[in-house]
Amino acid sequence: MSQMRQNIPRKKQVVDSYRQGIIVEGVYRQTVVIRSYEVGPDKVATIESILNLLQETALNHVWMSGLLSDGFGATHGMMKNNLIWVVSRMQVQIDHYPIWRSRIQALETASGRNARGEVMEIDTWVGASGKNGMRRDWQIRSQATGLVFARATSTWVMMNQQTRRLSKMPEEVRAEISPWFISKQAIEEENPIKIEKLDDTAKYVLSNLKPKRSDLDMNHHVNNVKYVRWMLETIPEQFLESHQLSSIVLEYRRECGSADIVQSLCEPDEDGLFDEVAVDDQHKRRITVLHGFSLASGLLEANRLVEAFNQSPFSYTHLVKIKEEIKNEEIVRGRTTWKRKISSMTFPA
């Protein structure tokens, strides 16, 4: 009855007209438009919106494959063995953020940007990750220009839904998903950076965070996208106004339930330690140098300024954990990298 109600395909589908999706050589491609509720005050898509889109297209890929059973991305073989997917690691690199409304109307027609929101194509595919894991990759690009907005990769493992313990991949499940495996990668990681554990001496700490009912997913634990929100809330508002997230790496440790009390820790990385006031003063001084110089000299200095900001990203290390008197269990470790917003640079009149 549940499958009839959800209209879950029992066979592979090539075209999904309802979701504007197609499958081409194992890759699922979906066309999406950025909505007004998916952007922030600057009218660009938020990192949470991007992560939600990645999650949605992944589920739609399984749906179209004909393998989806009555579960959160679980195949028929997984349901027989009482297994579910859980993400263990995720990395997202963002080169450009999709917009909801173009700031420069003249560019709107030339670039093919929709008057209401960016029209994007999201590709997603899967591959093997060790003996018992699965890798899923994504690429987000402009439908009109082909400009790549973001790339992402993730590693998934199986968990027993009752015992909440990790499980090996049954052969029947491997037989289901292995024909869909593709070797290409959206992000190649030769030497993944180890994320160090933080303690209560971290520079920024938010305590007594309580999951809301709306934070829970279909598996009855906090959706992994919500952890990112807790991480970003520890970063100073002044920094967020002038900087833009360029990459994020997440290492998941355990689940978080509705009754857990959560603490979010954040520490600027040693290589990216900075004095916000000093950075602003240096920025203003370099802009002021341009005033009164020749155009050629000014352009050269401006190019160097932009290049300096691009080459010197700021990084933070994050930890979201359950706060208890006896033990503090880690939920997720994270690392965020940021670059200065070009739009926040003020030039003299």
UniProtKB/TrEMBL annotation:
The keyword Coiled coil does not apply. SUPFAM superfamilies: Thioesterase/thiol ester dehydrase-isomerase. GO terms for cellular component: chloroplast. It is an enzyme of class 3 (hydrolase). CDD domains: 4HBT (cd00586). Residues 27-113, 117-177 form the Acyl-ACP thioesterase N-terminal hotdog domain. Its main location: plastid. One of its GO terms (molecular function) is fatty acyl-[ACP] hydrolase activity. Residues 201-290 form the Acyl-ACP thioesterase-like C-terminal domain. It is found in: Plastid, Chloroplast. The keyword Disulfide bond does not apply. Pfam families: Acyl-ACP_TE (PF01643), Acyl-ACP_TE_C (PF20791). Its EC number is 3.1.2.-. Belongs to the acyl-ACP thioesterase family. This is Acyl-[acyl-carrier-protein] hydrolase.
